[in-house]
Amino acid sequence: YINLHHRRRRCIWVVFLLIGGIVAFCFLEVISGSDEGKRRNPLHLTSLNHVSLLCRSIGESMNFYQNVLGFFPIRRPESLNFEGAWLFGHGIGIHLLRALEREKLPKKNEINPKDNHISFQCESMGAVEKKLEEMEIDYVRSKVEEGEIQVDQLFFHDPDGFMIEICNCDSLPIVPLVGGMVRSCSRVKLHQLVQPQPQTQINQVVHP
């Protein structure tokens, strides 16, 4: 009976030690994970909120972002006592501000995919291209090839010359340059990410 009692006590102590070890390990993991998160996201950012654009005409720009890109107007704070408009769509906002010195705004030049731009993912590149042709919007067609992966891109201007890109960029995997963690986009299988990838090739076609 005494030996059985001692065995039970030893078992209880072993269980307590195991539980304590697990708790300590989890605590250290939380601390280290928190430190790693701070290094990767020092400003604790969560998402892109909006893009603010100067424009020559609020009405013309609103028409473009509503009828071409599918944004919808939303209410602006009444404290903003200058001419402008807010729109929302696709998870981000577009804030339009009428330029006070419109003659100083950059003029619309030729479409250059290497210029500053904002990019939108789409469901069908063919449908987008057909719609741009119907609306008689000039665009440039471009293609990026990475191994067996192909990304199609369409570039065009808003009324003030700001570049817009429509693409199926979700086909391209996201591979961090630092760290062992590898993420894949929704349409790419993980095994595609670990294969050696050749140099990216870019082809460009201009549509008048």
UniProtKB/TrEMBL annotation:
InterPro entries: Glyas_Bleomycin-R_OHBP_Dase, Glyas_Fos-R_dOase_dom, VOC_core
CDD domains: VOC_like (cd07245)
Domain VOC: 47-169
Keyword list, A-Z: Membrane, Transmembrane, Transmembrane helix
Name of protein: VOC domain-containing protein
Database matches in Pfam families: Glyoxalase (PF00903)
Organism of origin: Brassica oleracea var. oleracea
Transmembrane segments: 12-31
